[in-house]
Amino acid sequence: MGKDCGNHADDDFQKSCRRLLLILLTLALLAGVIALIIYLVLRPTHPRFYLQDASLRQLDLSNGSAPLLSTTAQVTLASRNPNARVGVYYDRLDVSASYRYQQVTLNSRLQPAPLYQGHGDVDIWSPVLAGPGVPFAPFLADALRKDIAAGYLVLQVRIDGRIRWKVGSWVSGHYHIFVTCPAYFINAGAGSGYGGAVGAHGLRFQTATYCRVEV
């Protein structure tokens, strides 16, 4: 008789555990469905990024079989949240410059971080990007010399960061954001019409550009 009572107690405990597990799974499924409905209804659009200006303060390439590149540039970046009902948290935005896919400056973190961007808000940053004595591939060094001699240079300003979406009191998890902005420089004597500051090697920023954004 005592053994039967013990078995009944075990059965009741197992049933209670199964009910609790079922309730937790139902709540988790319900939360996921609500989040999906919010996403499908609001469909947050990626933030828009623009490269407004850039100036080359330094672009020095050493000679030899193991060339080193020293670069200093100041860029002006703008970001706009195009969503009418979705806010954006920028938890981290790291900016760097690259030449033909090789990074030539250190990462510069945009401040303040984190930053909240409301509906239709615009934020502007002007970081200085520096890369002293960066090891540079010889074939890229040859290409860079040719570009400078031709008076036309293209750098890529890149942003690597993490963002979250905000709808009312609900805040999403983290998403990776990648931004690529082409920076076109031409010899100041060519007359770009933009009027940017003349920098290293007589190169001047040609025109403001739209950036590609991936989330």
What does this structure look like?
The structure is a single chain. Strand 3 and strand 4 (102-103) form a beta hairpin. The radius of gyration is 27 Å and the shape is elongated. The chain has helices at residues 2-42, 138-150; strands at 48-61, 68-80, 87-99, 102-103, 108-109, 115-117, 122-125, 128-135, 152-167, 170-171, 175-187, 203-205, 209-210, 212-214. Strands 3, 4, 5, 6, 9, 10, 11, 12 and 14 form a nine-stranded antiparallel sheet that branches. Strands 1, 2, 7, 8 and 13 form a five-stranded antiparallel sheet that branches. It has two helices and 14 strands, in the order αββββββββαββββββ. With 215 residues, it is α+β, with helices and mostly antiparallel strands.
Q: Quick one: how many beta strands?
A: 14
Main structural class? alpha+beta
Radius of gyration, CA atoms, in whole angstroms: 27 Å
The main β sheet shows up as:
9 strands, antiparallel
Helix content: 25-40%
Mean pLDDT: 88
How would you spell out the order of helices and strands?
A: HEEEEEEEEHEEEEEE
In whole angstroms, the N-to-C terminal distance is 64 Å
Number of helices, where a helix is a run of at least 4 consecutive DSSP H or I residues: 2
Which regions have little confidence, pLDDT < 50, spanning 5+ residues?
none
Q: Per the principal axes of the C-alpha atoms, what is the gross shape? A: elongated
Approximate strand percentage? over 45%
